[in-house]
Amino acid sequence: MTDFLDPGQIAMLKAIAGTEIYVQEYGGYSRAEKRRLYLTPKKSKRSIFDFQIAICQINYPSKFARLNHSMILGTLANAGVETDTFGDIITDGNGNWQFMVKKELLPFFEKEINRIGQTKVEIKSVKLSQVLLPKDNSKEVVIITSSLRIDAVLSGISGHSRRQMKDAFANNLIKLNWHHVIDSNIIVKKDDILSLRFFGRSQILDILITRKGKYKVVLKLWQTKKHRRN
Length: 230
Known about the structure:
The structure is a single chain. By secondary structure, the chain is an alpha+beta fold. It has 5 helices and 15 strands.
């Protein structure tokens, strides 16, 4: 059984496994992005409990404080564990937050995570049947660009300058379809998933040509933080 893998890692592992290895996956709920994979030499049905995933509920004074995805991710990523030890961070949009962890590390997260930002929190495990119904906080965005180069499209989405985009590539902050890229000349296409660290992630839904010969790119955008876009 693997750690929590992102969709790019999952696709790569499945390609390597081919038809020789039977692969099953689960991430704590049906639409989980990060998942653990169970690999066996022959087909055998596994229970969701076999994936050894614990659901962590974040208890905090929600009447007086607000949490967000980037705050929680930052806290977990800086807790002294690898990011593949925990899975998705989800919310129902009503101030309730949960995240998935490897079951054997549950005592660590319960003991070590007692603050997120300035907010005092308590981490408690809940049953798999109590997982939240995640709210999709994405929005549809349309940009007009003269090029389908990845740097031009990301600049149009984020409002970042050409210099800022150059720095982002140099600092390894860009992902295309879950893989880090350093080539700003890559041409993107429909269904590609673009990620700019500290800004957010987007998926290209459609690409159209305007009457002036430019590209109208329709995207689904998930923002990590709210930035002013041009």
